[in-house]
Write a structure and sequence with these properties.
about 325 residues; alpha/beta; 7-stranded parallel beta sheet; two-stranded parallel ribbon
């Protein structure tokens, strides 16, 4: 029986990976802080990776596959000390944020990455992920798969970014919806279930290397139009300029009072990366309408009017629409 250790496995993507390994008949152990349950059938080891002895309960066995999602370099370093020699294969889920430039359209895995973070540096997500990768290359490079997803989307997304649009169009119905200027902008996402399946595929085949696990690059206008169609929105779509949104204090990409998926100018490469290596390695892509429909169903189940981690509230949006009219 395949033995799998997931460092995490109780959160969004990690839980899906654990469940898919269980479906394959693997023996799955999830090492996590215990803030959520592991999938039924998996063993949960509650541990804080920042504390000494975090891996004591799993360090005596051997593992056919270790899957790690960490963004903390010291966590990866300590895991390698405890588990590296006992892991036949290691899959690390990194991010396309590690690339040094977001200006080059069509760049692939050969592009330069940012300088890894050093001990004592102020936390920076991209440099931290780069440092994690560097530790792994040195310790288990010949047994290592590094996956670099872009924006992960689909049901259960805790960031609330992708789901904002299909839920907002659904809430608005026949009323106006505010969108950013879409000309020249693109989106590039990966369905959480496609990524989870690929992580298991990589582990089963002991695939090694680096691959950008991303979907097709799609014009932002096309993505928003499809979200509108799936939601059944019949109202007016009001497009605001970058200057108008900035003057109104609307943020790019994520967080409160933002318009998700809207990126600053000068980052055309962030959502136009080459995904041919992912497809060649067996990666699949769900139809965007399918992902949006599943996302909308999830948004409805969680409440379309609930407080969100990203986007404008409907009242903020209406106020801006009145200001811009």
């Amino acid at each position: 029986m395949t033995t799998v250790l997931i460092l995490g496995g109780t959160a969004w993507l990690g839980g899906r990976v654990a469940a898919r390994w269980l479906d394959q008949g693997a023996s799955v152990t999830c090492l996590a802080r215990g803030t959520g349950p592991a999938p039924r059938g998996a063993r949960l080891v509650v541990a804080d990776r920042s504390r000494p002895g975090a891996y004591d309960a799993v360090a005596s066995g051997t593992w056919d596959e270790v899957v790690d999602f960490s963004r903390i370099p010291s966590h990866v370093d300590s895991a390698l000390d405890a588990l590296g020699p006992r892991a036949a294969h290691w899959t690390f889920v990194s991010s396309v944020s590690v690339y040094a430039s977001a200006a080059e359209v069509g760049a692939d895995e050969s592009a330069a990455v940012v300088e890894p973070a050093a001990v004592g540096d102020e936390y920076d997500y991209a440099r931290a992920k780069s440092a994690c990768e560097a530790f792994l290359h040195r310790a288990v490079g010949d047994r290592l798969a590094i996956l670099r997803p872009g924006l992960i989307v689909g049901p259960g997304d805790p960031t609330d970014r992708f789901g904002y649009w299909v839920s907002r169009f659904a809430v608005a119905r026949d009323e106006p919806v505010l969108v950013p200027a879409t000309g020249g902008r693109t989106t590039q996402v990966i369905d959480v279930d496609d990524l989870a399946s690929f992580i298991v595929t990589v582990g089963r085949g002991s695939w090694t290397g680096v691959v950008d696990t991303i979907g097709a690059s799609v014009p932002l206008r096309t993505s928003l139009e499809l979200a509108r169609k799936v939601a059944g929105h019949t109202g007016v779509v009001v497009e605001a300029s970058d200057d108008a949104l900035a003057a109104a204090g609307v943020r790019h990409w994520a967080g409160p009072r933002s318009l998700p998926l809207w990126l600053p100018e000068g980052m055309p490469g962030f959502t136009t990366r080459d995904n041919s290596a992912y497809l060649a390695a067996g990666g699949v892509l769900s139809p965007p309408a399918h992902t949006l429909a599943r996302t909308l169903a999830d948004e409805r189940s969680r409440g379309l009017g609930r407080p969100r981690n990203a986007g404008l509230t409907r009242s903020e949006e209406i106020e801006l629409l009145e200001t811009l009219s």
